[in-house]
Amino acid sequence: MKKILEKSKRIILRFTENKDIDFVIKTESNPHNAPFIVPWTKQQHKDAFLNKDILHLIVDDKLTNKSVGYVILAGLKNPNHSIEFMRIVITKKKKGYGQETIGLIKKIAFEKFKAHRLWLDVKVKNHIAQRLYESQGFIKEGVLRECLLSNNKYDSLVIMSLLKNK
């Protein structure tokens, strides 16, 4: 039985299970997603959903009951009430899944986990994601210049956040 954390009109956010690992790995390696994330091994994902400080979720379409992405939140036990929106990867682009998922993530972070701050980093060249986050109220805080070595070149990350009462 799938354990649901949150749902909306179109999507369900449920806890990731071992049987979802192949979907997660395939989603990460998709050429439309791979340039914008640092992929994890199967073991890293399995370790994440056993870790009480991390929330690893699958995004399912309610109508088709098919998985359309996944999300990772970290810092659930952070004493400063600052949760990291570590990853969102959606397989079906430009269909509103990302926007709806972020809406549910904000609800989970601020209502269920009583966060004061929800933050993320996004590659500087990922303009589509940055616009999506801005449309959801995230504010750019700064840039970590050339902090990530990826494919033998350095990428910079934009830090963005959303505060509970802002």
Task: Give an account of the 3D structure.
The chain is an alpha+beta fold. The protein has one domain: 3-Layer(aba) Sandwich (Aminopeptidase). The protein is built from four helices and eight strands. An eight-stranded mixed sheet has the order 1-2-3-4-5-6-8-7, with helices on both faces. A hairpin with a 3-residue loop joins strand 1 and strand 2. The longest helix has 16 residues. The model has no long low-confidence stretch (mean pLDDT 94).
Q: Which properties best describe this structure?
A:
GNAT_dom, single chain, Aminopeptidase, 4 helices, 166 residues, Acyl_CoA_acyltransferase, alpha+beta, acyltransferase activity, transferring groups other than amino-acyl groups, GNAT family N-acetyltransferase, 25% helix, transferase, 8-stranded mixed sheet, 8 strands, 39% strand, globular
